[in-house]
Write a structure and sequence with these properties.
Elements lengths: L8 H12 L6 H12 L15 H10 L1 H125 L1
Length: 190
């Protein structure tokens, strides 16, 4: 008994396209091959949108299901490409935003550095002014103390001048009294 030699998956697919084109090859032979084609999982028909069965493949080709499958795949591909384009645009926008943020961060860092430098300069100036103010306050206190000493000295001098004037007045009065007494004595002798 001779065993039938079944066509490979590629041969079966070629036969399917020949049938679709109007070939008069017996369909019974193809139908007999379908069971062995469906039982060969090592080399499935990649173009079959449903399964590896030959009759389903022929049906998909004849009814337009395969074309619909291809159209759906094209639509998926276009959608995927559109989504990929949108994602690339979004990535570019995010990269541009990241660049702007980096620039802003750099500007803020530079401004902060400048502000820190100005703050340090201001603090140094404040320190110098504080030292000058402290020195001036010390000088003012010393000047006020000297002024009080001068005032005390002036008051003492005024008091001394007043006492001296009193003594002078007393001496003048005593001289006048003595002059009058001497005049009386002279007049009495005459």
């Amino acid at each position: 008994m001779k065993h039938k030699q079944h066509p490979t998956n590629g041969q079966a697919l070629a036969l399917a396209f020949m049938l679709r084109a109007g070939s008069c090859m017996p369909i019974l032979f193809l139908a007999g091959c379908s069971s062995s084609l469906g039982a060969n999982p090592t080399q499935p028909i990649a173009t079959d949108p449903v399964s590896g069965d030959l009759l389903k493949t022929l049906d998909a080709l004849e009814t337009g299901k395969y074309e619909q499958y291809l159209q759906a795949r094209r639509t998926e591909l276009r959608n995927w490409q559109s989504q990929q384009t949108k994602q690339q645009m979004a990535i570019k926008q995010l990269q541009a935003q990241q660049a702007r943020l980096q620039q802003e961060a750099s500007t803020l860092a530079q401004t902060s550095s400048t502000h820190t430098q100005h703050t340090q300069q201001s603090q140094h100036k404040i320190k110098i002014l504080t030292q000058q103010r402290t020195k001036l306050a010390t000088e003012i206190q010393a000047l006020q103390a000297a002024t009080r000493q001068l005032e005390q000295a002036r008051q003492q001098q005024a008091q001394q001048e007043a006492e001296q004037q009193q003594r002078i007045n007393a001496l003048l009065a005593e001289r006048e009294r003595l002059r009058k007494a001497l005049k009386l004595m002279i007049n009495s002798d005459n």
